[in-house]
UniProtKB/TrEMBL annotation:
Residues 30-197 form the AAA+ ATPase domain. SUPFAM superfamilies: P-loop containing nucleoside triphosphate hydrolases. Gene3D superfamilies: Magnesium chelatase subunit I, C-Terminal domain, P-loop containing nucleotide triphosphate hydrolases. SMART domains: AAA. This is AAA family ATPase. Pfam families: AAA_5, AAA_lid_2.
Length: 311
């Protein structure tokens, strides 16, 4: 079997928000996945693949842009239709259940019908297929969904945006020092993968195992982290004051805050946990996003959030 050579997750430079949201979605799968929005060349795919290799032990199941419904959901083989022998060919969703992560690059370019089906399965953890007059028994599937998109190529419809738990905007680094470090890391990785026993890659793999252990520990104990009613009230108040559409925003905010507390080894969710995740849970659910105007979280929103938390 060919060894997968991907930049170790611990060697990824920058992308702090993206890495944090991927970790939160791993710790608390109920969050409902992560949508990553950013221009080309910002290492969205690299970060997702490095995370998948670290957290799930392999590359994510990747959905191609031209995927058909049969390829996604699965279907009966042609022989089965002709002979009457039922032979099921599993699709990408069942493959994602085994691997742990389904990755959709340029999800905004995928057919809305397919996106809706995938999001339904993600939220219910149930795959039901009725095809060619043959009904497949209901299958339980569970995986983390990660989608990336370039907003210059168009947004998802608001109804689909809302189905993603967290939204993370990414952009090119503006710091010269950070860009220098990114360039140095990329070039070094290209050199190191040619070496059969690279200490640099071995160090990254060891650090990745430590991160995975921390994530597993947090995932095991997240249900034990206390969620005071005051925190639930805070999440509800924030959503109401920001005029967030629907009620999914406060649920995701609460789950993400709890996952953050678990990752940090805390026993009780605090307002600081809520403050840290609110942007990612709410930005794509604000009125501006619902009406297709823009998806932003600026200093104005941060100031408003701080005022609500301090009330």
């Amino acid at each position: 079997m060919t060894e997968v050579r991907i930049l170790p997750y611990s060697h990824v430079v920058g992308q702090t928000d993206l890495r944090r949201c991927l970790e939160l979605a791993f710790v608390a799968p109920g969050i409902g996945g992560v949508l990553v929005s950013g221009e080309r060349g910002t290492a969205k795919s690299t970060t997702v693949r490095s995370f998948s290799l670290m957290a799930y032990g392999g590359l994510p199941v990747t959905l191609p842009i031209n995927a058909t419904e049969d390829r996604v959901l699965g279907g009966w083989s042609i022989d089965a239709l002709m002979t009457g022998k039922t032979e099921w060919q599993a699709g990408l969703l069942e493959a994602a259940d085994k691997q742990g992560l389904l990755y959709i690059d340029e999800v905004n370019l995928l057919d809305d019908h397919l996106v809706n089906i995938i999001l339904d399965v993600t939220s219910t953890n149930v795959l039901v297929v009725h095809r060619e007059g043959l009904d497949r028994p209901t299958v339980a599937v569970k995986f983390t969904l990660v989608g990336t998109m370039n907003p210059e190529e168009g947004w998802l419809r608001p109804q689909l945006l809302d189905r993603f738990g967290l939204l993370v905007p990414v952009s090119a680094e503006t710091s010269v020092e950070q860009r220098h470090e990114i360039l140095r890391t990329v070039l070094r990785f290209e050199e190191e993968i040619a070496r059969p026993d690279s200490p640099w890659l071995a160090k990254g793999a060891a650090r990745d195992r430590e991160i995975r252990t921390r994530l597993d520990r947090a995932r095991t104990r997240v249900g034990q982290v206390k969620m005071p009613d005051e925190i639930l009230g805070l999440c509800s108040r924030i959503s109401a004051r920001f005029e967030v559409a629907g009620h999914r925003g406060e649920k995701v905010m609460a789950l993400a805050a709890r996952a953050r507390a678990a990752l940090d080894g805390h026993e009780v969710v605090t307002p600081d946990d809520v403050r840290a995740v609110a942007e990612f849970a709410l930005a794509h659910r604000l009125p501006e996003a619902v009406y297709g105007e823009s998806i932003t979280w600026t200093a104005k929103e941060r100031d408003q959030l701080n005022r609500i938390i301090l009330e």
